[in-house]
Specification:
The structure is a homodimer.
Chain A (H helix, E strand, L loop, with lengths): L1 E5 L4 H10 L5 E5 L16 H16 L3 E10 L5 E2 L13 H11 L9 E11 L4 E12 L15 E3 L11 H7 L1 H16 L1
Parallel strand pairs in A: 1-2, 1-3
Antiparallel strand pairs in A: 3-4, 3-5, 5-6, 6-7
Chain lengths: ~200, ~200
Amino acid sequence: MSQLILATRNKGKLKEIQALLSGLPYEIHSVLDYPNIPEVVEDGETLEVNALKKAREVFLASNIPTIADDSGLEVYSLNMMPGVISARYAGENVTYAENNQKLLKELENVPAKKRQARFRCVIALVTSTEEILFEGFCKGKIIEELRGSNGFGYDPLFIPDGFTATFAELSLEIKNIISHRALAMNQLKSYLSDLK
Amino acid sequence: MSQLILATRNKGKLKEIQALLSGLPYEIHSVLDYPNIPEVVEDGETLEVNALKKAREVFLASNIPTIADDSGLEVYSLNMMPGVISARYAGENVTYAENNQKLLKELENVPAKKRQARFRCVIALVTSTEEILFEGFCKGKIIEELRGSNGFGYDPLFIPDGFTATFAELSLEIKNIISHRALAMNQLKSYLSDLK
């Protein structure tokens, strides 16, 4: 069985991705299993650059094919912000609640039809022979108050198109079918399956 | 018949896009038909922001549903540069040849397997009720010398995956099947067809 490293220190994300990639003949580790691999600074200007940077650095340190992802919320009327700075929109080391408040403030008085947004996920796969990017989108809109307690980040403010519930009100089973990360992971999974 | 404006002043691009969107019940104009619409400065940090900006400004001035596109070449080993600055990579008001020389210089001594790149095209559609983005990719690699005289921009340096010819050696018929712009336009076309 081949090995893959997932360049994340987030145990929730690791679990989610292991579930999404289940069924493939790969043993999926996280960088947490390799304490000597230094932490990667996510200072790229785009999701693509961050995902590549994380995957490259972990691959260089481990020599094991590495997957890294970066995701962001892109709000059309805010010129696709917060995007790559989604996790630190309200500042460094802020809480999800602070980011959500900042987003609501930026969208104050913005009418419903101008609150379109999308979550975007970019996954980089770096091996000894190649670098590949995969991408997934989930389109929807930003509502005016927080709803739901599942998920994380901007989930309580985001209603995916075709639904009436926010990401934070939907079950993880549903979210794992329609989410940006699931769609990007499905592409990665197809790619890895074809390799075999 | 409904009308659409294409927010470009480039007659070659207008012709290409009219061909790609042929068969749809829309009359496609360019901003050149509306001399009072001011030129839009493409100073966004991403292709998405530029495409939205162009489409919004022309829609605001014309009140006619507007399509705008922005495209760029993203080279993995250059951290997805030149990307949004593809047209001005070597500076303001440069020629395609100068941009190509700059790219070759940046990739000097970079081995073949690290010369992966992709063209990316983002199309924005802005109407009175919505803003939508479409995206297309064409993956390939950057070679070490210019080859071919069709197309424009970085076409003589880019070989799409699965081919041995550069974009500048391929016919426009082939390019219009596999290119990033064609793939994004096909999505737009599907979307517009479904509206009818």
